[in-house]
User: Fold this.
Amino acid sequence: MEQIYINTAKMLKAMSDPKRLRIVDMLSCGELCACEILEEFHITQPTLSHDMRVLVEAGIVMDRREGKNIYYKLDKETLDRMYQTLGKVFEDKPDCICHKCRKN
Amino acid sequence: MEQIYINTAKMLKAMSDPKRLRIVDMLSCGELCACEILEEFHITQPTLSHDMRVLVEAGIVMDRREGKNIYYKLDKETLDRMYQTLGKVFEDKPDCICHKCRKN
DNA sequence: ATGATACATAGAAAAATGTCAATATGTTTT
DNA sequence: AAAACATATTGACATTTTTCTATGTATCAT
Assistant:
């Protein structure tokens, strides 16, 4: 399987949970620390910590420590690339496998 | 959790598997029957059948029977709406929760 | 009708995921 | 140094997902 599908699928998977998708939405306009995010959900702190790690490892979110807090923000460049890639996946393409099939 | 996140997350989840994402890519330029898709993967027929059902149930793909074959194609309208929604999730928004947090 | 072809369903096993309570780590405050 | 605070890690358990083999169903060809 080509790497592009693997990478993109990993990011999609990270956002394929309603609460993680909402977290991305919350982060889309700026940084938030874990405690601010936690307030919006009925989950325990370790659960959020795990969810944030999923987003960070997918490359969607970046984290930094400031004193006691960890601040999270979107990696807009990565997210943008992913969005563009996804657009291409949805688009018609002249070299698509289905055209090969149709020749038979 | 708001329905928009639930619906969108469900579609993302359906595409969060590399092979299913590739199937969407293959379908982006036209219809294909199950056997044509199957040729491109090293999976059994029941596995593909299951994957296609995931895509259909997410609303991403439509199916129809023609003789012995089942043809699959993308539901472009649904996919387009999802893509637009995702774009809005990634965008900065004036009414974002993070602005509320920042006021405190 | 029979057999062949294309796909779906059922059942099962292994792997991944989601979630929690308990505890550890790093940072600030006192 | 001790306490308090914010977050991470560990270990456990339940649920979901992935994938297979075996079997069922629908359609076509003979």
In short: Residues 33-35, 45-46, 48-50, 52-53, 65, 67-70 of chain A lie near DNA strand D (CB under 10 Å from a C1'). Chain A touches chain B through 48 residues (CB under 8 Å). Chain A has six helices and three strands.
